[in-house]
Design goal:
Helix Hairpins; 59% helix; mainly alpha; elongated; 2 domains
């Protein structure tokens, strides 16, 4: 989504860009940047590669890096620092597939915090999967436990990643103005698998 044009605070030109004014080159306030995808100039979708996200971050950062404006006015230095902080926050959020998906769902109007999702009843298949995985974890005893724990950790991680990318593809295929009622339960199961991965690793 492209932010609407706005007037430059420094020269008044009506076509000021997201970061810099095309007329006078002044750094613009970051308030109109919108979501993390917009900050990086990316479409709101899950299926971006990490390389594409990092390249978008580098290109945007090259425009507004605070070092470029070390001799500018105090206002521009502050705006540049705020832009850089927002871009770094966007990179941290979108570079990791799990946080990218939960963020994408949140900007599309779905509450993906763990607390509300934990109140949802899981599907029978998800419930049984967690029971079986926890039973397998509970059976890890004896000298071979470390080897079996590592094997179980890999299995849970693979299941987590499969579900993550499967759900991301479905969300990307769903029109922006369409509801996502199916996603809440699936994300809840992702959270549960993520906690199980931490338990196995611990």
């Amino acid at each position: 989504m492209t932010p609407a044009p706005r007037a430059c605070w420094a020269c008044g030109d009506a076509g000021a860009g997201l970061a810099l004014c095309a007329a006078c080159g002044a750094v613009q306030p970051p308030g109109g940047a919108g979501c993390h995808f917009a900050r990086l100039g990316l479409a709101r979708r899950f299926g971006h590669t990490v390389e594409a996200i990092e390249a978008a971050h580098a290109a945007r950062m090259a425009e507004v890096h605070p070092d470029r404006f070390a001799r500018a006015s105090a206002v521009e230095r502050r705006f540049a620092a705020e832009h850089a902080a927002g871009l770094n926050d966007a990179l941290r959020t979108l570079a990791m597939p799990h946080s990218r998906l939960t963020y994408l769902l949140s900007v599309r109007g779905l509450d993906v915090g763990e607390a509300p999702l934990l109140r949802l009843r899981p599907s029978d298949a998800d419930h049984m999967e967690l029971i079986e995985l926890r039973a397998a974890l509970g059976e890890l005893r004896g000298r071979d436990a470390a080897v079996e724990r590592a094997r179980l950790a890999r299995a849970v991680q693979e299941r987590f990643e499969h579900l993550l990318f499967e759900l991301g593809a479905v969300v990307d295929a769903t029109p922006e103005d369409a509801p996502l009622p199916f996603a809440a339960g699936r994300v809840g199961h992702l959270h549960a698998l993520r906690r199980l991965i931490d338990e196995v690793a611990g």
